Amino acid sequence: MFRKKGQFSIEFMLIFVFMMSIVSVIIVMLGQVSIDVGLAEKQSEVDDFAQSILKEFEILQVVEGGYNRTFIISDNFMERFNVTFDEYYLIVEDLYTYESGDEFSRTYRIPGEFNITTFYDPVLKNLKITLFKPYISDFDGISIK
After folding, report:
1. 91 has which bridge partners?
2. Domain that holds residue 98
């Protein structure tokens, strides 16, 4: 009888350890899925913010010459995102990164031709972006008699 109780307790411990291992694996998998979903949401926020800026460049491509547009990225966005321009690329970085800075740095190709000036105001902590499409006169092809 003593032997059966000992065998029962060993079997119980084996089943208990096995079940706890399965529960631990499930918890780890759920944590990893949660991290992946969080990263995807962060990247989606960066993409949405960048697309709103790129939309201004798309408008610039379809309008006639003489177009001038100035817009300001406010301080609450500048606290969250670092926005820079590198020739034909818009670079948006999410400043709230956790482990690796590269995960939230995204580069976007700016469409078409454009003239741009940027000014960061350190007092107001906002970024002023001015887009300009020069007016091109084609009077050379018109002859007036």
Report:
1. 84, 107
2. 2-141
C-alpha–C-alpha distance, residues 71 and 116, integer Å: 11
User: Per-residue pLDDT tens for 24-56?
Assistant: 999 999 999 988 888 888 888 888 888 988 888
Does residue 38 come out as left (phi exceeding 0), alpha (psi in the -120 to 50 range) or beta? alpha
Number of domains in the chain: 1
Instruction: For residue 85, count CB atoms less than 10 angstroms from its CB and return exposed for 0-12, middle for 13-18, buried for 19 or more.
Output: middle
CB 107 within 8 A of CB 91: yes
| Both structure tokens of 104 | 């939230």
Tokens standing for residue 92: 């948006």
pTM over 0.70: no
